[in-house]
Amino acid sequence: MNLNATLFAQFLVFFILAGFTMKFIWPPLIKALDERAKKIADGLAAADRGKADLAAAEKRASAELATARDEGQKRIGEAEKRGQSIVDEAKKTAAEEAARIIANAKAEAEQQMTKAREALRGEVATLAVKGAEQILKREVDTAAHADLLNQLKTEL
To answer: 126: closest CA among 139, 144, 142, 143?
Structure first.
Protein backbone atom coordinates (compact mmCIF):
# COMPACT_ATOMS: atom_id res chain seq x y z
CA MET A 1 0.00 0.00 0.00
CA ASN A 2 1.16 3.25 -0.65
CA LEU A 3 1.26 6.31 1.45
CA ASN A 4 -1.86 7.85 0.05
CA ALA A 5 -3.89 4.73 0.66
CA THR A 6 -2.56 4.57 4.21
CA LEU A 7 -3.39 8.17 4.75
CA PHE A 8 -6.81 7.65 3.23
CA ALA A 9 -7.43 4.64 5.45
CA GLN A 10 -6.33 6.61 8.48
CA PHE A 11 -8.66 9.50 7.46
CA LEU A 12 -11.47 7.03 6.90
CA VAL A 13 -10.91 5.36 10.30
CA PHE A 14 -10.61 8.78 11.91
CA PHE A 15 -13.88 10.01 10.38
CA ILE A 16 -15.67 6.77 11.26
CA LEU A 17 -14.35 7.03 14.82
CA ALA A 18 -15.24 10.75 14.96
CA GLY A 19 -18.74 10.02 13.61
CA PHE A 20 -19.25 7.16 16.07
CA THR A 21 -17.96 9.34 18.90
CA MET A 22 -20.19 12.26 17.86
CA LYS A 23 -23.27 10.04 17.50
CA PHE A 24 -22.96 7.70 20.49
CA ILE A 25 -20.39 9.02 22.98
CA TRP A 26 -20.57 12.79 22.64
CA PRO A 27 -24.34 13.31 23.43
CA PRO A 28 -24.30 11.44 26.78
CA LEU A 29 -21.03 13.17 27.67
CA ILE A 30 -22.47 16.62 26.81
CA LYS A 31 -25.69 15.70 28.67
CA ALA A 32 -23.69 14.67 31.76
CA LEU A 33 -21.65 17.90 31.58
CA ASP A 34 -24.83 19.99 31.14
CA GLU A 35 -26.50 18.22 34.08
CA ARG A 36 -23.43 18.79 36.22
CA ALA A 37 -23.32 22.47 35.21
CA LYS A 38 -27.06 22.75 36.01
CA LYS A 39 -26.54 21.11 39.42
CA ILE A 40 -23.68 23.51 40.16
CA ALA A 41 -25.79 26.50 39.06
CA ASP A 42 -28.74 25.24 41.16
CA GLY A 43 -26.43 24.77 44.14
CA LEU A 44 -25.05 28.29 43.75
CA ALA A 45 -28.57 29.68 43.42
CA ALA A 46 -29.66 27.75 46.51
CA ALA A 47 -26.64 29.09 48.38
CA ASP A 48 -27.57 32.64 47.34
CA ARG A 49 -31.19 32.04 48.41
CA GLY A 50 -29.90 30.60 51.69
CA LYS A 51 -27.77 33.69 52.27
CA ALA A 52 -30.73 35.94 51.48
CA ASP A 53 -33.00 33.87 53.75
CA LEU A 54 -30.39 34.01 56.51
CA ALA A 55 -30.11 37.79 56.19
CA ALA A 56 -33.91 38.11 56.25
CA ALA A 57 -34.12 35.79 59.27
CA GLU A 58 -31.46 37.84 61.07
CA LYS A 59 -33.44 41.02 60.36
CA ARG A 60 -36.65 39.40 61.62
CA ALA A 61 -34.83 38.11 64.71
CA SER A 62 -33.42 41.58 65.41
CA ALA A 63 -36.86 43.10 64.97
CA GLU A 64 -38.41 40.48 67.28
CA LEU A 65 -35.70 41.08 69.89
CA ALA A 66 -36.30 44.82 69.72
CA THR A 67 -40.04 44.28 70.03
CA ALA A 68 -39.58 41.88 72.95
CA ARG A 69 -37.18 44.31 74.64
CA ASP A 70 -39.65 47.20 74.20
CA GLU A 71 -42.53 45.08 75.46
CA GLY A 72 -40.45 43.97 78.44
CA GLN A 73 -39.61 47.58 79.29
CA LYS A 74 -43.28 48.51 78.93
CA ARG A 75 -44.33 45.68 81.25
CA ILE A 76 -41.67 46.68 83.78
CA GLY A 77 -43.00 50.25 83.67
CA GLU A 78 -46.57 49.02 84.12
CA ALA A 79 -45.49 46.81 87.02
CA GLU A 80 -43.70 49.73 88.68
CA LYS A 81 -46.80 51.91 88.23
CA ARG A 82 -49.01 49.16 89.66
CA GLY A 83 -46.61 48.67 92.57
CA GLN A 84 -46.64 52.40 93.29
CA SER A 85 -50.44 52.49 93.14
CA ILE A 86 -50.59 49.52 95.54
CA VAL A 87 -48.22 51.34 97.92
CA ASP A 88 -50.28 54.54 97.64
CA GLU A 89 -53.49 52.61 98.22
CA ALA A 90 -51.95 50.88 101.25
CA LYS A 91 -50.84 54.26 102.63
CA LYS A 92 -54.33 55.65 102.11
CA THR A 93 -55.91 52.61 103.78
CA ALA A 94 -53.44 52.86 106.67
CA ALA A 95 -54.19 56.57 107.09
CA GLU A 96 -57.93 55.87 107.10
CA GLU A 97 -57.45 53.04 109.61
CA ALA A 98 -55.29 55.29 111.80
CA ALA A 99 -57.93 58.03 111.68
CA ARG A 100 -60.63 55.50 112.61
CA ILE A 101 -58.54 54.13 115.49
CA ILE A 102 -57.82 57.66 116.74
CA ALA A 103 -61.52 58.58 116.51
CA ASN A 104 -62.46 55.41 118.42
CA ALA A 105 -59.78 56.14 121.04
CA LYS A 106 -61.03 59.72 121.42
CA ALA A 107 -64.63 58.53 121.79
CA GLU A 108 -63.58 55.92 124.34
CA ALA A 109 -61.51 58.49 126.23
CA GLU A 110 -64.49 60.84 126.20
CA GLN A 111 -66.71 58.05 127.58
CA GLN A 112 -64.13 57.27 130.28
CA MET A 113 -63.94 60.95 131.18
CA THR A 114 -67.74 61.14 131.36
CA LYS A 115 -67.86 58.04 133.56
CA ALA A 116 -65.08 59.42 135.75
CA ARG A 117 -66.92 62.74 136.11
CA GLU A 118 -70.14 60.95 137.04
CA ALA A 119 -68.29 58.80 139.56
CA LEU A 120 -66.51 61.87 140.91
CA ARG A 121 -69.79 63.75 141.19
CA GLY A 122 -71.29 60.83 143.09
CA GLU A 123 -68.30 60.71 145.45
CA VAL A 124 -68.35 64.49 145.93
CA ALA A 125 -72.06 64.31 146.75
CA THR A 126 -71.41 61.52 149.24
CA LEU A 127 -68.52 63.47 150.76
CA ALA A 128 -70.72 66.55 150.91
CA VAL A 129 -73.39 64.60 152.71
CA LYS A 130 -70.84 63.16 155.14
CA GLY A 131 -69.36 66.59 155.61
CA ALA A 132 -72.79 67.98 156.29
CA GLU A 133 -73.41 65.14 158.75
CA GLN A 134 -70.24 65.98 160.53
CA ILE A 135 -71.14 69.60 160.59
CA LEU A 136 -74.66 69.04 161.73
CA LYS A 137 -73.68 66.16 163.94
CA ARG A 138 -76.59 64.24 162.78
CA GLU A 139 -77.34 61.95 159.94
CA VAL A 140 -78.86 63.39 156.82
CA ASP A 141 -81.45 61.14 155.22
CA THR A 142 -80.25 60.42 151.66
CA ALA A 143 -83.63 59.09 150.55
CA ALA A 144 -85.42 62.19 151.76
CA HIS A 145 -82.90 64.52 150.26
CA ALA A 146 -82.37 62.62 146.94
CA ASP A 147 -83.68 65.52 144.86
CA LEU A 148 -81.33 67.89 146.63
CA LEU A 149 -78.40 65.47 146.08
CA ASN A 150 -79.22 65.07 142.37
CA GLN A 151 -79.33 68.83 141.99
CA LEU A 152 -75.97 69.02 143.73
CA LYS A 153 -74.55 66.37 141.34
CA THR A 154 -75.66 68.30 138.27
CA GLU A 155 -74.23 71.53 139.60
CA LEU A 156 -70.86 69.85 140.19
So the answer is: 142
Q: What is the pLDDT of residues 73-111, one digit of tens each?
A: 999 999 999 999 999 999 999 899 989 999 998 889 999
pLDDT at 144: 61
Q: What's the first-to-final CA gap in the chain, in angstroms? A: 172
Q: Which residues of the chain have pLDDT under 50?
A: none
CB within 8 Å of 31: residues ≥ 6 apart: none
Alpha-carbon 8 to chain mean position:
97
